[in-house]
Amino acid sequence: MMLLPTATTLTFQQDFYYSVAERTKFFASKCRSLSPSLNTKDSSPKGKFRFSACTSSRRSNKKNNTKWYIKQPTWRLWGEEKADGALYTVYLKKVRYHRPTRSLSSSHSDSDDEISHLEWETVRVRFVKAGTLKRLVEALATDDGELETTYINVFLATYRSFSSPKEVLRLLLQRYEELADPPENGKPDHHEQHRKTLISALHVWLDSYPEDFKESPHHPALIQLVNFCEKYLPATELEAKVRHRLDRYSREQPPKITDTLLIPPATLALRTAVPEWKCYRLPNVPVRHFAEQLTRMDVDLFKKLVPHQCLGAVWSRRDKSRSHEAATVLATVNQFNAVSFRVISSILVEPGHKALDRAFIIICWIDIAQELRVLKNFSSLKAIISGLQSNPIYRLQKTWAVVAKEKIELFDELARIFSEDNNQWAQRELLMREGTAKFADTVGENDKQLQKIFQRQNNHSANISFGTIPYLGTFLTDLTMIDTAIPDTISDGLINFDKRRKEFEVLAQIKLLQGAANAYNLIGDIVFDRWFDSILVLDDREAYQLSCQIEPSQNNHVSKVKKKSSGHQKNDSIASNSSSNSSQFYCDIDSMPSSPHNSIERKLSPSQMSNSSSSSSLPSLDVSLNSSHSGRDNKLQVPLNSSGTLSPSHSQKSSPDFYVIKVTFETNSVETEGIVLYKSIMLSNNERTPQVIRNAMYKLGLEGNPDNYTLAQVLPDKEMILPLNANVYYAVNTAYNLNFILRQKKPEEAESNGKAAKSKIKL
Amino acid sequence: MREYKIVVLGSGGVGKSALTVQFVQGIFVEKYDPTIEDSYRKQVEVEGQQCMLEILDTAGTEQFTAMRDLYMKNGQGFILVYSITAQSTFNDLQDLREQILRVKDTDDVPMVLVGNKCDLEDERVVGKDLGGNLARTFNCAFMETSAKAKTNVSEIFYDLVKQINKKSPEKKVKVKKPRLCTLL
Questions:
Q1: ipTM of the complex
Q2: Residues 6+ apart with CB under 8 A from A625
Q3: Which chain B residues are Cβ-neighbours of A340 within 8 angstroms?
Q4: Contact yes or no for A336/A382 (Cβ under 8 A)
Q5: Who has greater pLDDT, A82 or A272?
Q6: Which residues from chain B sit within 8 angstroms of residue A574, using beta carbons?
Q7: What is the pTM of this model?
């Protein structure tokens, strides 16, 4: 049985159950329409998943005694209720419950067994729909002063989209202090209960999101908590926990950068210690072992994945000022790509191979994919399928023609899992059914090959159980769409908490699967790692060129000629046309301790890169292969494999945190004529035009009003004047050198401000 | 009813998802579920014909680079989106287009170039003329849109449907595009 890693108690059921109930109807209807094709063992297809979600209460805060044991609640929407600074949705619920009497000392003992009475009742339940931040923090305790556990889970998983740890902590402690005064009309007990609940909330927070309190070097949040405890809660469990935490963090070696730099060599050293004679060579490799090793890599990354980094507000908007905040997501994406690239290049790179040799490698990957299906690793499974379906591989008709028929069938069956039809229904359904099941057993009636495989597997290993590694992309798309479609605030600026509940439905699934991933028990193999790192990686253009060398395009004459000419253009433009490439290049430079100023000298890149890629042996391939991409990608593997050091700056497509730009000042002064004086300034990723102008003026020693200046990027045959309030980091043309010119506005220009600047935009 | 598979491509942060949501949902909604089967499906009437549009939005998965080929293989028409406030998102499209042509193995692919976020005029860095020029080299339609201000959103989808109709009238499309795996 699988458990949520964060504190969860039974109230979790209440609204999860509710939303699930609605969906189950949908799945049930879906199932009927498809019933012959699905091997339905469980009458409710959602059953496994829901059951685990609802019983996942273990690691919860033991002090919290929520006593609502729900059997088939019947819910009815009653309406909305507005209160000062908050909006509630109100439901009427018929419920059978038992509620033990709460002894005064019960906060430390589980008293679940003391059933005092048992009855049915209709109760009114309020859910916070929206509210000010202050109200949302207050709502951590219910009206009765109890801990609202669903609520706190949703809140802690999502609050970073609308607030910060610092702010929430401040409000929470402030609330505690406010409750110190006896209530005007209520019983003092009531306040006491509220305060206890707030302390419980702090415990839950500290336990489930320790990173929120870690801020080197001084960890101000923890110090604030220590002071708070000294004042209000001396010698309590909370104080002990906070002090211990502070102690531990202070003792840790603070500079993380050295860690990142030190680990790769260490790993490399380990790898060289492997006997040279032992190495893998496709297609003669143990496929089950390979599948397990890929899974081992995925499990490591998946367990480290921080679910809230997947939120639309973090992941899909991260280009603004927070690329580091999605590091664990990026690491997962990079691993996915790394696997796909390895599939592609392993099939293409040996120039001497015959069609049959390549077919064997394809078959080998299909076999590995099949094992991944058994292991329920949908991430690497999809990566391999994507690799085989990528254009450079897929178009090799002669090669596919010699792949055995049943292997093609198997490939088709595996590919069907990831069909995009009906919003990826097949894959969603499969994840629901098997997400927390012990082993894979779902097949469609047309999946003949998979049926055989599962049969064999079930005979052999009936008592082995696996976790599940999902393909993360589906969750990322869902969260991006939720973030786009549902407004952040409603009714005059109240924070839309229903949006966060919706997001939490997705995050809860991820957490559930992360817990399930503990079921894997896979041991690393250095020889495999070395093989994985040794595979050369091609970018899609290189892969396509190689593929065309193997099997020339079947297309007619005209398009061939066109292709060729466009191919030339491509070669010419490789160095300069793609900004994504150039930003990758920036990343590498930035991650090196050497001067970031190098990043301006883009022209250097080909030579630097070919140095790094020359180590990968490639006997007889033409020049196009030795391009920068492969070199870069091999480098990329280092941070991925050195367990735990997920440095976003190594990531493939991410932008660097800053650019270094060169700014010169244009004057009419005769003395400086002919002298170009550049100053380099840092351009970080949230700076707008006035700020950048101010920085440039400071560096160039200019005084005066920044509004009287304009800033323009110097491009080969024109200038791009930056609008008054542009996000410069985002706006610049990174395909060219980042050279800028600062100009004093002419008097009339300075007066007519914004509009004038706008009309001057020309490229 | 004829089905159209439309793929929305572009760098992260250009507002692809907003275009899709705006088109499919019409308004920004409080209740929204991206996980149901027809989250991205919409029936429209174009040139007197009822059409079912199935939109594949790559939002959130831009960086799963290895999967782009598959999107491109399955799509019949493409919406290439950049943001008028970010030069790099404009530059990225050249590569995407090349990749589409490679995958489709033809130069004639129904496509619309879209400069999004045109409500942010005072942050504009990509001029409208520049978008127009690129569209001419791409030999495709061009529009500036704003998902936020609901400018030109349906128009891009309608234009694309017309292009697909023109390129492959009647039911030819289904015959021309066999299921991925049966090709082998």
A1: 0.90
A2: A349, A536, A538, A542, A546, A618
A3: 66-67
A4: yes
A5: A82
A6: none
A7: 0.70
